[in-house]
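Example 9 (inverse folding). The structure is encoded as follows.
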């Protein structure tokens, strides 16, 4: 009998059951899909790193004076498994021409280096994750070049430096464990050894990567202490955890956004399930009373409904699980492109299955909680149709009171309802709109759920949109350790770099088109960590009152006795504002007071700012930040500076951000669009579900109002007004939450990457116009379609 009753009940409410299934399916798909992306990212990264064998510790230096000293150190050190020193030939962007483009990408933020294949480890892999090989005249480009430069196999890459020209044919693309991520501003191109030697003779500047594989990668700090104590070449230190972090940031951010979205949808799904059950109980209240009257125990009746919703939830979660494999694969395409596909493992299915099972457990638990209300149903009162106990009884009493008020308002404009709604004062001149608004106020407890859902939907749309808009704005450069400016000039190591840097500052000082500028010199120093071992720290020197970065604690250094630390460095060295930090300057220890902690997403999030003396041999790079005067042609000035200060890089700050976050921005755009569509669909669904429940409760009231002369159009206006007021309340709360709680959540998300507090840059056209319009259109469509049932309510009650 249970199966027959279950089948009949599902068939009687096909539309609502199908919608509920679809909604739970979407929630399950998003959660399981996010778990799938994380599984694929971790699996792909592990397999990729196993094939590429990136170094555990590396120093990027401009000169290796004595390789024999490095060899002797490596042979004697117990942690060293293997060591190699690789050359990279850095060629300025203004000398490189891609494909059919007649102009070079001179303003690109990326530094392009030409290399040969590594002999022992740190391999550059082809798209099959095998060590790539090229012949004479061929070149293998990084994956990044597909999107950035539009390259494809068979295109030409031409190097022109003065009278020298070298032409290469793109034979394939390479995956580079160290430099895959767009946040890494260096990219390697693979060429044949003969071609490399020819290029080296005519153009470019050579840099070196002193790389080590360690027997125990967890002892990197101990190894670095010994390396620096040996007086070996030092520059920019890179470790395996930094390499993993840079690769994970590209695919990890969209995955976390999806997990958050899925979590919100689970909450909404639980609300919708409660709505569905309550609406069903309202419609079948008499049937429940009859079942109780003939002797069926509440536990058995509860089992009937619980079996129905458990079955629907189970089917929906199973469908969501299988769909997540396709959905997740769509978002994992970028991960597969940059790192390759992960080998099949049990976790590829287990993690999404855990996600789908979690959704089922939450939905089933919510179902059990709501069905406890069956204990309060009185068989006698339910059969009589009188004032029942429990939820339905309270709703019936509210309905009768509301119907009575509506009748009195219709009979006399001087009644109590007129005074409550201030119709006489003209606040709400239309009686139907006034009745709809009053219904929300009188039955606020029933409208809380749709208001909360509208709030969550608004939140889900606005937060990703605001974050995406924030990343795309020039002000985001402040979270990249730069400060907001119009342009950035970067000078890497080359001959006479000190003189070229000084000449650049002198030229900018005399240029009337420059409103403000600030020189920055980043050099390598040594400082003790929490264990007392000395490690390298990159410190930027300059005037930080010009183009300041956002500080989360304290302020910028104002004297030569202060130092400011990036967030991740502050955590690593366990420092807070006011603490003392020792830095070796000119061979002597110098005690500096930590003046503040700022946010920085670049260089692994580990930087510092101070006013210290530096040795030219310890300088890593020079940079100049500048603002143009009003009326200056920024594009023309950047081209002029590129020619004047060549081979310096001159970037517009907006282009710098776009290139640095290219892959992340592209994925966030996809996630934002998907979440917006889903949120609008959720808003429409909850509106239809809520109105179905309200119509079931208000059948008697609707019939009375029709008898008093209200037409179906008048009553429809009342419910549209109630839905509109609920939507406005949800939009207002969601917008406030997005601007406060949303920033906190994004800050928590970005904290592990180097930025913990990112105020949103809000685009009013998106946040206050486009998002509300999308939700309003979805809700209005649901109201108009659902309100057709009003025309049938009167006939149903009369025939009853």
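The amino acid assigned to each position is listed next.
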């Amino acid at each position: 009998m249970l199966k027959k009753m279950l089948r009949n009940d599902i068939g009687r409410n096909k539309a609502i059951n199908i919608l509920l299934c679809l909604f739970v399916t979407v929630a399950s798909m998003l959660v399981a899909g996010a778990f799938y992306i994380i599984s694929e990212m971790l699996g792909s990264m592990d397999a990729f790193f196993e094939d590429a064998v990136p170094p555990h510790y590396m120093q990027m230096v401009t000169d290796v004076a004595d390789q024999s000293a490095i060899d002797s150190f490596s042979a004697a050190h117990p942690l060293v498994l293997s060591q190699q020193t690789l050359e990279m030939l850095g060629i300025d962007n203004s000398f490189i021409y891609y494909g059919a483009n007649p102009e070079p990408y001179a303003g690109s933020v990326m530094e392009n280096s030409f290399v040969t294949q590594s002999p022992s480890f740190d391999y550059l892999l082809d798209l099959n994750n095998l060590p790539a090989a090229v012949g004479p005249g061929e070149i293998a480009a990084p994956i990044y070049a597909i999107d950035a430069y539009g390259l494809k196999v068979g295109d030409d890459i031409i190097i022109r430096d003065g009278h020298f020209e070298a032409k290469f044919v793109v034979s394939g693309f390479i995956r580079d464990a160290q430099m895959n991520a767009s946040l890494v501003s260096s990219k390697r191109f693979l060429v044949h050894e003969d071609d490399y030697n020819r290029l080296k003779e005519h153009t470019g500047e050579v840099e070196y990567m002193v790389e080590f594989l360690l027997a125990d990668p967890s002892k990197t700090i101990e190894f670095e202490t010994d390396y620096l104590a040996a007086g070996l070449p030092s520059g920019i230190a890179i470790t395996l955890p930094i390499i993993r972090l840079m690769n994970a940031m590209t695919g990890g951010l969209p995955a976390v956004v999806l997990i958050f979205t899925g979590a919100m949808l689970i909450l909404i799904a639980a609300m919708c399930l409660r709505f569905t059950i309550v609406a069903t109980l309202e419609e079948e209240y008499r049937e429940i009373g009859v079942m109780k009257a003939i002797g069926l125990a509440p536990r058995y009746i509860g089992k009937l409904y619980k079996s129905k919703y458990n079955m629907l939830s189970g089917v929906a979660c199973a469908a969501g699980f299988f769909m997540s494999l396709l959905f997740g694969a769509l978002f994992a395409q970028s991960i597969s492109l940059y790192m390759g596909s992960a080998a099949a493992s049990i976790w590829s299915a287990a993690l999404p299955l855990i996600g789908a099972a979690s959704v089922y457990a939450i939905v089933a638990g919510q179902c059990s909680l709501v069905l406890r209300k069956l204990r309060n149903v009185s068989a006698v009162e339910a059969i009589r149709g009188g004032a029942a106990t429990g939820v339905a009884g309270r709703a019936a009493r509210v309905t009768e009171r509301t119907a009575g008020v509506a009748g009195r308002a219709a009979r006399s404009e001087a009644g109590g309802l007129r005074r409550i709604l201030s119709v006489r004062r003209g606040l709400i001149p239309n009686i139907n709109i006034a009745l709809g608004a009053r219904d929300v106020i009188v039955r606020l407890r029933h409208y809380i759920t749709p208001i909360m859902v509208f709030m969550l939907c608004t939140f889900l749309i606005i937060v990703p949109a605001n974050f995406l808009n924030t990343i795309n704005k020039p002000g985001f450069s402040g979270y990249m350790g730069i400060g907001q400016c119009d342009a950035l000039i970067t000078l890497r190591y080359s001959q006479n770099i000190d003189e070229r840097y000084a000449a650049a500052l002198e030229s900018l000082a005399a240029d009337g088109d420059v409103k403000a500028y600030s020189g920055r010199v980043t050099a390598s120093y040594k400082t003790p960590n929490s264990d007392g071992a000395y490690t390298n720290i990159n410190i930027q020197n300059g005037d930080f009152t010009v183009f300041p970065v956002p500080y989360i604690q304290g302020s910028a250094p104002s004297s030569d006795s202060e130092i400011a630390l990036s967030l991740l460095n502050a955590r690593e060295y366990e420092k807070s504002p006011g603490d003392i930090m020792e830095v070796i300057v000119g061979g002597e220890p110098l005690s500096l007071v930590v003046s503040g902690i700022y946010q920085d997403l670049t260089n692994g999030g580990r930087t510092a700012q101070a006013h210290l003396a530096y040795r030219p041999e310890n300088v890593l790079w020079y940079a100049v930040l500048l603002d143009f005067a009003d009326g200056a042609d920024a594009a023309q000035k950047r081209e002029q500076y590129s020619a004047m200060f060549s081979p310096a890089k001159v970037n517009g700050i907006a282009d710098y951000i776009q290139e640095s976050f290219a892959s992340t921005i592209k994925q966030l755009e996809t996630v934002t669009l998907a979440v917006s569509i889903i949120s609008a669909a959720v808003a429409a669904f909850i509106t239809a579900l809520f109105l179905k429940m309200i119509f079931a409760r208000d059948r008697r009231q609707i019939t009375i109002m029709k008898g008093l002369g209200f037409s179906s159009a008048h009553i429809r206006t009342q419910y549209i007004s109630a839905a509109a007021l609920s939507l406005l309340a949800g939009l207002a709360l969601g917008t406030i939450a997005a601007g406060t709680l949303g920033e906190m959540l994004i800050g928590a998300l970005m904290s592990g990457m180097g930025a913990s507090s990112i105020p949103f840059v809000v685009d009013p056209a998106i946040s206050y116009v486009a998002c509300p319009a999308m939700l309003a259109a979805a809700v209005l469509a649901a109201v108009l379609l659902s309100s057709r049932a009003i025309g049938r309510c009167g006939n149903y009650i009369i025939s009853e």
